[in-house]
């Protein structure tokens, strides 16, 4: 009965075979033009997913199984595996455009499982006269610590003998795997123990030490065999002695390799039949017989037929000369007891019974036929392996993706699991010849063989023309593995008929004939166009794509270039060609003296027609002269045509002073130097205007083109002084000139009036950090920039102190410059005197209110810029500071005073605490240099620029919260709560929304007596001083006691 695993394996094989057959039986299916891909997967995934062209078949090889899937309409496919993919490689088949296997791509999981290396062990083998001998695996190094020294050795190590019998050791492999450090005793050396020979398994087994290298030696024959113990020290030596040796028995010597040699024996006793070893047989290939030992006088049956009877010694032999079947059943009968086994004759591929139903080819990728029933095979194809099993009738069947080359190898599995190759076949290429790919390059037909891997292919083509004539040509497609060079057939005309015959150069000749009508591409017809047109129209073959490179002339120093026009011909045969970027500046034009480059293609084919066409000149030249400044000495001019000659005329005012005739040949920019001998400029010789005209190769002459010489002299520019805070910028220049200004990121522009005055209203007030850049340009367009910075601040108000007989100009500028101002009292100019601290000046005589004052700011040229007028009606009053506050906690003193006053704070000992100078802002905040003592009084002085003071007092209040209280551990059995906080502070304890109060003593200790409170509830505690300042709250939880 089949196991579950065998059943699943057979179902999987049937599935992929049917899938591959389905692909094979549907050769007309749509083939993928894009290669399929597999999406990333992990070792634990059981479903593989990927992308391919919609509705195409995909082949995937995993763990010796070929799976087939079909992509859905979105191009997705998936394959379910019988178990997680694990660390196995996944191979994805790639098919060519004709549906044949072209390549395969291998994939690995994205999360590979790290290889766990076995940890090596260290064994004490024995000792020499002076050393202890240690061993480990061949790829590891031993590290030993013995009596204060460290010793190392690869694979083996000799440690000098000392007094102690223990050492600490570990081993480390070349890959970095390190064993644990162990304490190794040198009292007992390692030993070898080999069990008696086992006839039923034909081997010696035993125990040594890990990685021990043992030699089994037959001293009678001199034969020797080397065996290596596994990492656990297990020894297994397969040994098949002759029948004579089995009859008499044999003792083998077993010796270990290394600096210390350990010896023992392996005993093969003379064979005696027993229930566990009823027979011992050998296949003697040279004699074509099976021989062996069993019970005396026992019948020996070969495939249920008596072949021998053992003699008195138990010896027998059976002849197998005529037997082709490699596996046979041998049965031993003795005393009504029977024992059976299978034997396998040496592999003989030439005589192995196996036939194919049909040869394997590109059109029949199927391995099917008849062989021995119920045998396991392995198929190797293109580097991959596939399992194959014959059924009870010996039939086998396996299909592959179509492929036109490669080799298939078939191996049979022996009884011991070894595979022996019995057949191999080369896949025959029987693909039908395909019609060559046809394309046109002008009137030349190009033929390309679409199939790779073919032998030499001879072709013959007959071209029949419309007039009844014909051309014939023979050619060769040479054998190749890649796309070859096309064969060219010239002289093709529209409507030609062709007959094409292909024949392969091979034993089984393949032949194919193709017929049809040829349609090479034809030239397009272009409508007329202008020099600056951005689109072109015309007629051509419907559906074709046109690319036209048009020669152009630039208004620059480069002599020309090309503009590309592209478009597709519509169904009605009309086309509209456009450029990639539209240029309406007319800085370039079509060069009518050049050649057009035209390329016409058929989308989806390789057909192409390329040709050049010379433009026809139908217009007079268009002359353009760039701007010319008077500092130059040459004229540059540009034509949209190839000029044969040009005339240049120079003027002083309206007077013609010189005419020059130029003979030209090249295309692009033309130039003429005014005076090449003296190198004088137009400005030096007074040239004011130039005229140019040109004549092209068609003797068509343009009109005269005139340009004026531009002056490089800059107009005068004076930028008036600016004050901080102003929003108007003024400058002086020539009438009606444009002036530009830049302040930070903001740009301004204005035109001077008829008197040359420029006024710009700014979007914000000027600051101390601003740099004002004012620019003016000459006729040639060259810019000249002047930089200015604002100075001083504007005066905001004027105050008078009758007592001090001084005047105060209220401004942010604490040092007003009197020289910039004119000051008048009651209409008479007054000279200001004094050191002007805080912009305060002493008047020349005593004044009585009321009186008129007038302050005028003047520009550097003496013109008035701004005037401030005011009637002084009373003397200036110094007011006390209001809204005054002070914090002992932060040491901040805040309040409101008059603008531009100096505010100072003093303690009760008249020691200065803080100070600040005010500007426009009346609010102030200053931090005391020292702590503000609670309960003490401070005084705040407000001093105006005249030196007058106002004084106000303030008592410092307590605004410092008590120290956050600590709290003792509170349990469900506690009868009091204790802690520490600020001395004499009130302590509030809240439990279940009820507050309990107590007071801390002089040291800050507090105590509250309570009844036992419920476990799990919370208690909050805070402290509060006499000024009602509250500390942070502490929360504690009542724990169960």
TrEMBL record:
Locate the transmembrane regions by residue number. Answer: 12-32
What is the superkingdom listed in this entry's lineage?
A: Bacteria
Residue intervals of the Bacterial Ig domain: 961-1034
Keyword Transmembrane helix listed? The answer is: yes
> Any idea which UniProt keywords this protein has?
Membrane, Transmembrane, Transmembrane helix
- Coiled-coil annotation: which residues? none
Quote the Pfam families the UniProt record gives.
Answer: Big_6
Is S-adenosyl-L-methionine among this UniProt entry's keywords?
A: no
Known InterPro entries for this protein? Answer: Big_6, Ig-like_fold
> What is the protein name stated in its UniProt record?
Bacterial Ig domain-containing protein
Query: What is the species of this protein?
Result: Exiguobacterium indicum
């Amino acid at each position: 009965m089949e196991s579950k695993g065998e059943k699943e394996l057979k179902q999987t094989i049937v599935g992929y075979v049917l899938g591959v057959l389905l692909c094979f039986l549907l050769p007309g299916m749509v083939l993928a033009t894009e290669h399929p891909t597999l999406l990333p997967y992990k070792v634990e995934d059981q479903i593989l997913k990927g992308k391919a062209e919609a509705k195409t078949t995909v082949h995937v090889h995993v763990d010796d199984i070929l799976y087939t899937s079909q992509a859905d309409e979105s191009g997705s496919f998936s394959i379910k595996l019988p178990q997680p993919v694990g660390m196995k490689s996944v191979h994805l088949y790639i098919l060519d455009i004709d549906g044949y296997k072209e390549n395969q791509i291998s994939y690995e999981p994205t999360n590979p499982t790290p290889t766990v290396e076995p940890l090596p062990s260290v064994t004490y083998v024995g000792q020499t006269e002076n050393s202890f001998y240690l061993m480990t695996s061949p790829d590891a190094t031993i590290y030993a610590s013995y009596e204060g020294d460290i010793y190392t050795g690869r694979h083996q190590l000799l440690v000098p003998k000392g007094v102690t019998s223990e050492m600490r050791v570990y081993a480390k492999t070349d890959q970095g795997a390190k064993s644990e450090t162990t304490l190794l005793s040198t009292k007992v050396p390692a030993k070898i123990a080999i069990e008696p020979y086992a006839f039923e398994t034909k081997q010696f087994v035993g125990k040594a030490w890990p990685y021990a290298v043992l030699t089994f030696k037959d001293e009678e024959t001199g034969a020797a065999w080397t065996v290596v113990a596994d990492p656990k020290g297990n020894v297994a030596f397969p040994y098949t002695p002759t029948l004579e040796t089995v009859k008499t028995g044999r003792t083998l010597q077993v010796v270990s390799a290394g600096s210390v040699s350990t010896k023992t024996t392996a005993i093969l006793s003379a064979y005696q039949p027993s229930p566990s070893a009823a027979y011992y047989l050998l296949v003697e290939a040279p004699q074509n017989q099976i021989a062996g030992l069993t019970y005396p006088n026992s019948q020996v049956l070969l495939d249920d037929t008596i072949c021998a009877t053992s003699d008195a010694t138990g010896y027998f032999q059976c002849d197998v000369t005529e037997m082709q079947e490699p596996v046979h059943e041998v049965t031993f009968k003795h005393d009504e007891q029977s024992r059976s086994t299978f034997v396998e004759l040496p592999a003989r591929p030439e005589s192995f019974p196996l036939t194919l139903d049909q040869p394997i080819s590109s059109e029949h990728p199927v391995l099917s036929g008849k062989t021995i029933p119920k045998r396991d095979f392995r198929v190797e194809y293109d580097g991959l392996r596939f399992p194959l099993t014959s059924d009870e009738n010996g039939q086998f069947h396996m299909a592959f993706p179509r492929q036109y080359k490669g080799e298939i190898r078939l191996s049979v599995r022996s009884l011991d699991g070894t595979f022996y190759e019995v057949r191999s076949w080369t896949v025959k290429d029987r693909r039908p010849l395909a019609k060559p790919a046809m394309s046109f390059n002008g009137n030349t037909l190009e033929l390309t063989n679409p199939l790779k891997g073919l032998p030499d292919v001879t072709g013959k083509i007959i071209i029949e023309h419309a007039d009844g004539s014909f051309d014939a040509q023979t050619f060769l497609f040479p054998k190749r593995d890649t796309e070859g060079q096309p064969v060219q057939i010239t002289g093709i005309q529209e409507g030609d008929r062709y007959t094409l015959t292909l024949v392969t150069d091979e034993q089984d000749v393949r032949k194919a004939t193709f017929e049809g009508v040829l349609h090479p591409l034809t030239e397009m017809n272009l409508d007329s166009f202008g020099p600056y047109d951005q689109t072109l129209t015309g007629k051509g073959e419907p559906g074709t794509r046109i690319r036209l490179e048009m020669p152009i002339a630039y208004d620059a120093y480069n002599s020309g270039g090309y503009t590309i026009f592209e478009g597709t011909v519509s169904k009605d045969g009309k086309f509209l060609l456009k450029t990639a970027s539209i240029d309406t500046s007319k800085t370039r034009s079509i060069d009518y003296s050049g050649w057009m480059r035209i390329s016409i293609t058929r989308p989806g084919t390789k057909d192409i027609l390329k040709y050049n066409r010379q433009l026809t000149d139908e217009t007079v030249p268009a002359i353009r002269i760039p701007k010319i400044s008077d500092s130059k000495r040459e004229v540059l001019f540009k034509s949209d045509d190839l000029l044969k000659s040009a005339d240049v005329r120079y003027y002083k005012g309206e007077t013609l002073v010189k005419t020059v005739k130029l003979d030209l040949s090249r295309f692009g920019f033309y130039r003429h130097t005014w005076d090449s001998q003296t190198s004088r400029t137009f400005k030096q010789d007074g040239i004011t205007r130039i005229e140019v005209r040109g004549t092209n190769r068609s003797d068509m002459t343009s009109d005269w083109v005139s340009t004026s010489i531009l002056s490089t002299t800059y107009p005068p520019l004076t930028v008036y002084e600016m004050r901080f805070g102003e929003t108007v910028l003024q400058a002086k220049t020539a009438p009606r000139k444009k002036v530009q200004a830049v302040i930070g990121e903001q740009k301004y522009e204005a035109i001077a009036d008829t008197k040359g005055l420029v006024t710009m209203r700014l979007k914000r007030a000027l600051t101390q950090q601003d740099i004002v850049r004012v620019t003016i340009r000459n006729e040639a367009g060259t810019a000249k920039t002047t930089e200015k910075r604002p100075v001083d601040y504007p005066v905001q108000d004027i105050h008078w102190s009758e007592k001090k007989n001084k005047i105060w100009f209220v401004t942010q500028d604490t040092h007003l410059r009197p020289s910039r101002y004119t000051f008048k009292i009651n209409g008479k100019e007054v000279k200001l005197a004094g050191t002007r601290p805080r912009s305060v000046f002493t008047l020349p005589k005593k004044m009585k209110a009321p009186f008129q004052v007038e302050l005028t700011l003047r520009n550097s040229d003496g013109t008035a810029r701004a005037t401030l007028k005011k009637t002084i009606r009373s003397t200036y009053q110094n007011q006390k500071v209001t809204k005054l506050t002070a914090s002992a906690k932060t040491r901040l003193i805040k309040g409101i005073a008059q603008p531009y006053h100096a505010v100072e704070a003093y303690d009760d000992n008249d020691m200065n605490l803080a100070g600040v100078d005010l500007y426009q802002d009346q609010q102030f905040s200053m931090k005391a240099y020292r702590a503000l003592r609670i309960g003490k009084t401070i005084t705040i002085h407000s001093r105006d620029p005249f030196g007058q003071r106002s004084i106000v007092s303030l008592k410092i209040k307590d605004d410092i919260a008590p120290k956050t209280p600590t709290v003792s551990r509170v349990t469900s059995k506690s009868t009091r709560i204790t802690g520490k906080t600020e001395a004499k502070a009130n302590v509030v304890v809240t439990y279940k929304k009820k507050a309990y109060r107590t007071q801390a003593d002089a040291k800050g200790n507090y105590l509250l007596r309570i009844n036992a409170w419920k476990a799990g509830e919370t208690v909050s505690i805070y402290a509060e001083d006499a000024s009602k300042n509250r500390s942070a709250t502490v929360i504690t939880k009542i724990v169960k006691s």
